Amino acid sequence: TIVYLCGRVRFSGFEQRLQSAGVQVRTVEIYDTVALDYPDEAVLARLSGRPVEAVLLYSAKAATAMQALAGRPALAELFRKTCFFALSGRIAAALETVASEQLRVAPEPSEEALLELLRTSP
Fold first, then answer.
1. What are φ and ψ of residue 13, in 5° steps?
2. 50 and 14, same structural domain?
3. pLDDT digits (tens, 9 = 90+) for 57-108
4. Tens digit of pLDDT for each residue in 3-56?
5. Which of 41, 64, 86, 110 is deepest in the core (most CB within 10 A)?
6. What is the pTM of this model?
């Protein structure tokens, strides 16, 4: 038996793969993911009203939230030319309205691969 310390919101594939391999998993939720909703003015101030060049996306939830943020009329111009870097295809799929030329997907789901993709992108 192993103990898996995790968040309440998580991708269940990891636990399922362990159980399929015959490993008994005990999950212990130690944190939660809570969505925040900042007013447009707060986001504009945080970004100094300047366009965003790149966004790193580590989860489908973050991608969905980012898409909603970039879709706000008051913020849309800040993200018009943004390149989105996703850790995996599953995460990239959550960006339903982002044009493919603005989206890059890491060749493997690791932070090292994601950062290398960022480093080598034009």
1. -55, -35
2. no
3. 999 999 999 999 999 999 999 999 999 999 999 999 999 888 788 999 999 9
4. 999 999 887 788 899 999 999 999 999 999 888 899 999 999 999 999 999 999
5. 86
6. 0.82
The verdict on 8 and 68 lying in the same domain is no
Q: Which of 58, 53, 54 is nearest to 106 (CA)?
A: 58
Q: How many domains does the chain contain in total?
A: 2
Range of the domain at 11: 2-31
Quick one: 100 and 77 in the same domain? Answer: yes
HEC string of the chain equals CEEEEEECCCCCHHHHHHHHCCCCEEEEEEECCCCCCCCHHHHHHHCCCCCCCEEEECCHHHHHHHHHHHCCCCCHHHHCCCEEEECCHHHHHCCCCCCHHHEEECCCCCHHHHHHHHHHCC
